[in-house]
Amino acid sequence: MQPATIIGGPGSPYARKIMIICEFKQVPWRCDPIVPFQGNDEFTRLSPLRRIPVFIDDQVTLADSTAIAEYLDERYPDPPLFPPGPAARAKARWLEEFADTRMGDVFIWKLFNNAVIKPGVWKLPRDEDAIAAALRNDLPEVMNYLESVAPDDGFVCGTLAIADIAVAVHFANLRWARTAVDLTPWPKTMAWMARVEAVPEFAKLTNLGTRAITTRSADRRALYAEMGVALTETTLAGPEFRKGPMSV
Predict the structure, then answer these.
(1) Cα Rg of the chain (Å, integer)
(2) Residue 105: closest CA among 243, 13, 185, 38
(3) CA neighbours closer than 13 Å in the CB half-sphere of residue 172
(4) pLDDT tens digits, residue range 51-105?
(5) What does pLDDT average to over the chain?
(6) Model pTM?
(7) CA count, 13 A, side-chain hemisphere, 235
(8) Residues 26-60, buried b or exposed e (16+ Cβ, 10 A)?
(9) What is the C-alpha to C-alpha distance for residues 36 and 47, in angstroms, rounded to an integer?
(10) What are the structural domains of the chain?
């Protein structure tokens, strides 16, 4: 089987979600670890909304993590990403949507963006006021909802499912934002997240993301080789950064 191509780096929770799914289903993959702001005109052609991840294999080119996950589950059904039964599958889809939208807005745009992307990409100061406002006004609402749906043990739909992965990927980005937020008021959620993050495929990609965002650009190719991640021979990174949506 020829490896699929994932355009997008493991610093993105959405790209990392698809990498984890490929590992979980033992689908070979390689990546072009760009951030969407780097994408050239060919990237825009493949991803008209200029979002990552983009997934390319011998049958499809897709630029939405939900569509990619559903495609992978239908093409490679074992092990399944969606639980049996219409009610459980609907619950899994809803929690993935909540993670992609509301959690993405708070964890990625209001926190990770102001703490990491603005300084790292746009060379702007870390926006401590915006970070503090999000921690005060937005994060508790998200965490309260997660606490209300978190399972007492195991995973939210019984076995590991898309919902668990989609929610859990955001917590690495929250840690990388270095806000020192106290999450102990939500013990069920944090125990749930710890169980998901301990899954070997998940832990592998979280480690890759952690190391990638703390490694100099010039040294990242060696890092990917060390971690056993194949890279594409060419890149869709352009000569300059362009503003636009990040990822879904």
Answers:
(1) 17
(2) 13
(3) 27
(4) 999 999 999 999 999 999 999 999 999 999 999 999 999 999 999 999 999 999 9
(5) 95
(6) 0.96
(7) 15
(8) ebebbbbbbbbbbbeeebbebbeebbbbbbbbeee
(9) 10
(10) 4-79+201-231 (3.40.30.10), 86-199 (1.20.1050.10)
Please spell the DSSP secondary structure of 150-185, one letter per residue. --SSSBTTBS--HHHHHHHHHHHHHHHTT-----TT
The tokens describing 112, both together, are 């990770």
Burial (CB < 10 A; 0-12, 13-18, 19+), residue 2, is exposed
Q: How far apart are CA 38 and CA 23, in angstroms?
A: 26
Residue 244 confidence (pLDDT) above 80: no
Residue type, 191: A
Is the pLDDT confidence value at 247 over 80?
no
Mean pLDDT, range 129-154, rounded to an integer: 98
User: Which token pair is 103?
Assistant: 């959690």
